[in-house]
Amino acid sequence: MGRINGRVAVVTGAARGIGQAIATVFVQEGASVVVADMDVEAGQATVAQLEAQGGQALFVRCDVGHRPDAEDCVAQTLARFGQVDILVNNAGVARDASILKMTDDQWFDVLRVDLYSVFLMTQVCARAMAQRKYGRIVNVSSLAGISGVYGGSNYSAAKAGILGFAKSASRELARHGVLVNSVIPGAVDTDILRGLPESVRQEKCKAILAGRPADPLEIARVVLFLASEDASYVNGQAIVCDGGRADKL
Question: Which residues form the Ketoreductase domain (predicted)?
Fold first, then answer.
């Protein structure tokens, strides 16, 4: 029996990268998964992969920073599976620019998708979870939310905001049986990292004691822990998954 057997999980930004890895691990551990993403083609392909592994999955096209979409996502989840047990707030975008040149649109686009969506999806899912007195919410933040990142003040602000929000949410929702935790990845081997110049990738790896970026599955396994009963006494915490950053030692 899997570690989250019989649970129903909503994973945002699950069409690729870390989100797809989380959805894959969840299905392997017995959960039904809702793939919430804006990319219809990639999202449907992910669902097909999950079903090919014997899992139950549903794709919902969802702009997680838009309330009607968030509410529709939960409605479709309840209609298909009857419950929401786990939410993983993973969706995110980047719109890099220096502070001196950043536009309002660049600032607010990132805050809407990377931070407001965490509040929004938490609110709509927690309402359903509270009715059953059970829920696990895991937020995917970033090392950028702790250390900052050059040219990404909007992204860093959003990822830092996630950590503060999660602390507050853990206090408010505990009495409803809902636990809220976060993971803080460092460099991860995703399309975004692969799209950087080789020299930049090598420089990032030099600052990691492991000497390499994380595989998305390595992040997914930490998320699985927080979503499972193995973490039944863990609430309001943030686990750093950065391979050991040499520049912090």
Answer: 7-191
Q: Positive or negative CA dihedral for 122, 126, 128, 134?
A: positive
3-state secondary structure of 60: strand
pLDDT digits (tens, 9 = 90+) for 76-133: 999 999 999 999 999 999 999 999 999 999 999 999 999 999 999 999 999 999 999 9
Half-sphere exposure of 202 (CA within 13 A, CB side): 3
Instruction: Please name the residues in contact with 101: beta carbons below 8 A apart, sequence gap of 6 or more.
Output: none
- The catalytically annotated residue of 116, 134, 150, 155 is 155
Give every CB contact of residue 48 below 8 A, 6+ residues apart in sequence: none
Domains with residue ranges and CATH for the chain: 8-248 (3.40.50.720)
Q: Which of 135, 132, 222 is nearest to 174 (CA)?
A: 135
Question: Is 155 an annotated catalytic residue?
Answer: yes
- Which tokens is 11 given? 């994973």
* Residue 102 DSSP symbol: -
